[in-house]
Amino acid sequence: VDTVGKNAKKIQEYIQNQLQNDLEYDQMTLKEYIAPFTGEPVKQNK
After folding, report:
1. Is 14 helix (H, G, I), strand (E, B) or coil?
2. Whose CA, among 19, 29, 41, 44, lies 20 to 30 Å from 3?
3. Residue pair 22/16 in contact by the 8 Å Cβ criterion
4. Which residues pair with 34 in a beta bridge?
5. pLDDT for 18
6. What is the Cα 46 distance to its own chain's centre?
7. Which is nearest to 24 in space by CA: 32, 13, 16?
8. Which run of H or E residues covers position 31?
9. Which residues contact 32 (CB under 8 A, 6 or more apart)?
């Protein structure tokens, strides 16, 4: 039984899924260091 091609495809799908999850997580946790409207640095003491 040849599983080389099947394993490679599953690994590729897994990596793509992980990369997509990483991108989504980065977008959810992105902190604003520069105010988008004023361009001023955001003070961390809120």
Report:
1. helix
2. 19
3. no
4. 41
5. 93
6. 27
7. 16
8. none
9. 42
